[in-house]
UniProtKB/TrEMBL annotation:
It is found in: Cell membrane. It comes from Enterovibrio norvegicus FF-454. PANTHER family: ANCILLARY SECYEG TRANSLOCON SUBUNIT (PTHR38035:SF1), UPF0070 PROTEIN YFGM (PTHR38035). It is a single-pass type II membrane protein. This is Ancillary SecYEG translocon subunit. The lineage of its organism: Bacteria, Pseudomonadati, Pseudomonadota, Gammaproteobacteria, Vibrionales.
Amino acid sequence: MDVYTTEEQQVEAIKSWWRENGKAIFLGAVIGLGGLYGWRYYQSEQETSREQASEAYMQVVGSLAAGDAEAQEKATAFLQSHDGAYTALVELQLAKSFVEAGDLAKAAEQLRSVKTAKDDALKATATVRLARIEAQQGNFDAALKELDGVTGDSWKPQVEELRGDIELRKGDTNAARSAYAASIAAASNPVVQMKLDNLPQ
């Protein structure tokens, strides 16, 4: 900015600068404030949505636990209207409800849906439960194949114990012995040790 010799020239320079840049400054302020307000509104809506999903989830789970006659319909309605973390949890609860009702096919369908979740713990839980259902239906090879998909070390004791149980039901005592031994090696468990000790030689 040039050095102005009189006050009037300085005032005139400020007015001129404001005429050239005032609209841009005003527009920038409006956009900035609008963006801030919009972001806060979006965050508030997201929080409200999460709270509503949590409340609906609690109602569905409570209904399933109580054995409400309409619990399965409520759970299905929840699954159709929500997505995200609660969906897989409701599917697990719904699968449990189907198992208790003796409808293993529907339970397996729900568990297969959970296996597509992003959370590894939920996927592993669903896979182990699905293996149990396959074994219950006599599909031993399918059950063992499901167990092959669970690779986390924390799951090894449970997976190998279940593998041993399935191999024993198939009539393969040696494979059952190896699975029980692997389960015990991963985590000592007196129940699995008893299963191993009771295997015929």
